[in-house]
């Protein structure tokens, strides 16, 4: 990725580093999976058919869509679909790049549920899909996080996947959840229990907004801004091997041996981050730079003088509760 700042961006980065002033403005939360829903004057139909049509239209290829009251019910429907096709009923979760094994299926696997949020790249996703098919499993791509973020058609479109079905179980405002299963070929039975009307309404508004807005493009801009700021301030503090951003700009991942200390310091600066960064598409590029870059600068500067292995330092108050100007003096003394 090209993170070379333009002339205006470079001047702003230099000014932010020179001032290291406390951030002003609202909390920036890049750790929340919930995508806020824009207010609409017109209330969208809450009938399941309306929600199904919006999803099928956005993804483009599903021949059927089923909406369930809870995510586990959608997973169970995929299991039943596999069983009806003469496969096993167990669900094998696959998540290349996640770095941790997932629970084995209960019973002979018949469904491969492929998560792509930690995916190293398209080749890894396609290799996992090929492995699932070689084992005779029904391939379902879990688009709960990647849907609407990586592409308008989710990870399937972004990574060139052609599964039998997809799962979409987003976290909606107010703690609402639903499970949506969509696919091609034979369809599972209709849901016995549907989500309540407010949950369907929230999901329909989110899908309608994503249909009208190029969400991945907005996230790409925000991801580039975050990556550029982190790369610049990490280089200024000599932390490039201790905290870094990797992966697609639309759904980036933080890494590095001092990641957790950095996350704690950023939180103190009113910038909430998680190892999997959930960018907020309702911020525009200028807002993201003005809000995020000063907080990144202070978090990196503080991490530079934080002893290795220590978390959020109680003694940092000695540098002043309202300013990090003392950091530059500390850095100069360390380097002299």
Strand order of the largest sheet: 2-9-6-5-4-3
Q: How would you sum up the global shape?
A: globular
Oligomer state equals: single chain
The helix/strand class is: alpha/beta
Total number of strands:
12
Order of helices and strands: HEHEHEEHEHEEEEHHEEHEHH
Radius of gyration: 22 Å
Largest sheet: 6 strands, mixed
* Termini Cα gap: 34 Å
Beta-strand level of the residues, as a percent range? Answer: 5-15%
Mean of residue pLDDT values: 86
Helix content: 40-55%
Low-confidence segments, given as residue ranges, are 310-331
What is the number of helical segments per DSSP (H or I, 4+ residues)?
A: 10
Description:
Helix 2 runs parallel beside helix 6, helix 8 packs across helix 9 and helix 9 (285-305) packs across helix 10 (326-335). With 336 residues, this protein is of the alpha/beta class. It contains 10 helices and 12 strands. The radius of gyration is 22 Å and the shape is globular. Helix content is 41%, strand content 14%. The strands form 4 sheets. It has a 6-stranded mixed sheet, with helices on both faces. A two-stranded parallel sheet has the order 1-12. Strand 5, helix 5 and strand 6 form a beta-alpha-beta unit.
Condensed summary:
The protein is 41% helix and 14% strand.
What secondary-structure arrangement, pairings included, does this model have?
Blueprint: H1 7-19, E1 28-30, H2 48-59, E2 64-68, H3 71-84, E3 90-94, E4 109-115, H4 122-134, E5 138-142, H5 154-159, E6 165-168, E7 171-172, E8 176-177, E9 179-183, H6 197-212, H7 215-237, E10 244-246, E11 253-255, H8 259-268, E12 271-273, H9 285-305, H10 326-335
Parallel strand pairs: 1-12, 3-4, 4-5, 5-6
Antiparallel strand pairs: 2-9, 6-9, 7-8, 10-11
């Amino acid at each position: 990725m090209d993170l070379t700042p333009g002339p205006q961006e470079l001047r702003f980065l230099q000014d932010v580093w020179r001032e290291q002033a406390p951030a002003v403005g609202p909390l920036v939360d890049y750790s929340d999976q919930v995508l806020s829903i824009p207010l609409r004057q017109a209330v969208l139909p809450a009938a399941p058919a309306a929600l199904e049509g919006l999803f099928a239209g956005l993804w483009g290829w599903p021949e059927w869509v089923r909406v369930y009251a809870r995510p586990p019910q959608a997973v169970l429907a995929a299991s039943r679909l596999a069983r009806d096709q003469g496969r096993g009923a167990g669900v094998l979760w696959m998540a290349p790049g996640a770095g941790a094994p997932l629970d084995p299926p209960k019973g002979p696997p018949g469904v491969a549920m492929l998560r792509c949020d930690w995916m190293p790249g398209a080749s890894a996703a396609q290799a996992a899909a090929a492995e699932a098919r070689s084992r005779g499993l029904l391939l379902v791509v879990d688009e709960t996080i990647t849907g609407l973020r990586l592409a308008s058609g989710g990870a399937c479109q972004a990574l060139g996947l052609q599964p039998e079905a997809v799962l979409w179980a987003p976290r909606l405002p107010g703690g609402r959840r639903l499970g949506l299963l969509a696919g091609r070929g034979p369809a599972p039975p209709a849901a016995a229990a549907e989500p309540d009307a407010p949950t369907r309404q929230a999901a329909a508004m989110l899908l309608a907004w994503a249909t009208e807005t190029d969400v991945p493009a907005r996230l790409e801009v925000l991801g580039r801004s975050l990556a550029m700021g982190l790369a610049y301030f990490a280089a200024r503090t000599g932390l490039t091997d201790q905290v870094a951003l990797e992966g697609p700009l639309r759904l980036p991942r933080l890494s590095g041996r001092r990641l957790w200390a950095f996350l704690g310091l950023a939180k103190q600066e009113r910038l909430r981050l998680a190892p999997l960064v959930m960018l907020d598409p309702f911020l525009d590029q200028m807002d993201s730079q003005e809000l995020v870059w000063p907080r990144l600068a202070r978090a990196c500067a503080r991490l530079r003088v934080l002893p290795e292995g220590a978390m959020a330092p109680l003694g940092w108050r000695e540098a002043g509760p309202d300013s990090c100007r003392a950091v530059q003096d500390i850095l100069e003394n360390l380097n002299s």
